[in-house]
Task: structure prediction
Amino acid sequence: MDKSSILRKRGEGSGSKVGFVELFYDLVFVFSIIQLSHALAHHFTIAGVGETLILILAIWWLWMFTTWALNWLDPDTMAVRLLLFAMMFGGLVLASAIPEAWGEKGLLFGATFAAMQVGRSLFTAWIFWGNSNKHALNFLRIAIWLAFSGAFWIAGGLANHEGRTILWLIALLIEYASPALFFWVPVIGKSTIEDWDISGTHMAERCALFVIICIGETILVSGRSFAEAEMSAVNLVAFAGNFTGICMLWWIYFRFGHERAAHHIEHSNDPGRVGRAVFTYAHFPIVAGIILCAVGAEFVLAHPQGHSGWKEAAAVLGGPMIFLLGNIWFKGAVWGRVPLSHLLGLVLLALAVLVHHLFAPWQLSLVAAMVLIVVSVLEWRALKPAGNVVPQ
Result:
């Protein structure tokens, strides 16, 4: 079997193009994000937030590791399409287990997650073997690390509630630490950044599409909640405020951040290091912040009037804060300078948190939207006229 035909053709016009089957694969993660936001909204306690955060970290890592693999695998080949179909089925099983991940479906979640992580990595190593042993060893190292963490995922699924949390946290620590440790394995050794000669265009586009998925979930939540609410001027204003905030999330990420980050990684002499810092790690708080914004939209549109409690403040204002923190990390890693507009936004949101009890939920939503507008306008004024590449 000529496995070289399964690899992407570098240096060609379509070599880094996102395939339709990759977009088809992403549909599973639409369901996953919906499940995560619903789980967070219905269990918005300290324990519930912590448990959902573990699941978000897991889903993001699964998607991100698959994105790295698809940077080299050609999605238009039958073998890769079959791999993605299998991953889609596993992803549906995984997403369906999210509401009961700390209940009777813990083993189903843990075992499915481990099988998907290890199986995809071994498949990629096999494809590379004989074509590029350097890359084959990289994915073999990854498979070994993921098999190690997978034991904790499975053990956690078998454990009781508290034990499951501890074991799954250990599994996540292993997986998130592995790239920083260059997937070092005894005898085989470790990878080097130079080994990860990724296509920056493909990586940037894939991450942007995941951000769109998360923003799309926020739109779906807002639309569904507004449709179920009574028709009133307050509900309409709350809906408009939520929609404005969603538009600002898109603007802040895509207007300057994504475009320039894509250009930076594509022209970098060290795309592996940039990809790891800018996309693998820095995008997680962006994604988590958007999911929390979706929860905030559900809270506001379900009960727009009355005094805002800590629950509403944490979601409505905390979501944009985490999103801005992610963008600070993301843009700072690209340009080496913190965007001052984003820092101002964090300060304004923090002040709003301190006086959140003075606002009704619908008013709190408008405050969050106005802060995001301020951030967007200040960044646009700083970058647009001078054509700088450094955010102000």
